[in-house]
Amino acid sequence: MKYILILSAFLAANLTSSAQNKLLIYGGPQFSSAFYSVNGKEQTVHSRPGFHAGAALKVPFENHLYFSPTIFYSLKGYKVDITEPSIPPERTATRNETRIHTMEIGAILQYDFSMTPGHFFFKAGPTIDVQLAGKEKITWDDKSVITRKMKYSFKDYGYVGANLYGQLGYESKSGFLLGAMYSHGLGSINNVDYGARILHQVAGLSFGKYINR
């Protein structure tokens, strides 16, 4: 949580420090999935709908390049068919469906393809997502089902995940933004030794508006 507070303070400080800096408010729909493997065997995963919403700065760096730190909420999840004993969720489970609330922060660089007021851009950089809370629906061979809160600890699901984020889009002269984004996990959100390897995968659309000073 301290990382969220630090970035929030950074956004606020930079917004007021220069007339060239811009604040972007954005959000949009997304589909999330996961790379899920057990004992080196990849499992079949289905995507789930969600959304994201947040804020970012656009700070001039050099020519076409900008620094764009961001903080945003992201509703993630996945539906996995399990053919190998997997912990979590349970060793004999055959399916797991999750809904995960995350707060994500990123150190993003943006490249504008043109200096004209209306232009295409590309963003990329690492992000860290804090797993705020989650639920999982576990199914067994006998069709029995339970729904429970996901447990986070150093021996269960992890509190924090790392990702690589990319976005391609267009900024209009009037300050509106439309972008297509993709994010892929770099570290497993499962802390169990020899357990399933779970990497977030998210694709979506972002709609936003720049707010000038």
Structure notes:
The chain is mainly beta and 213 residues long. It has a single domain, classed as Porin, CATH 2.40.160.20. Helices cover 8% and strands 62% of the residues. It has one helix and 13 strands; from the N terminus they run αβββββββββββββ. Strands 1, 2, 3, 4, 5, 6, 7, 8, 9, 10, 11, 12 and 13 form a 13-stranded antiparallel beta sheet that branches. β4 and β5 (65-67) form a beta hairpin. The radius of gyration is 19 Å and the shape is elongated. 29% of the residues are buried.
Secondary structure layout plus pairing:
Blueprint (H helix, E strand, L loop, with lengths): L1 H16 L4 E17 L2 E2 L1 E3 L1 E15 L2 E3 L2 E12 L13 E12 L2 E4 L6 E21 L5 E5 L10 E12 L4 E10 L11 E15 L2
Antiparallel strand pairs: 1-2, 1-4, 1-13, 3-6, 4-5, 4-6, 5-8, 6-7, 7-9, 8-9, 9-10, 9-11, 11-12, 12-13
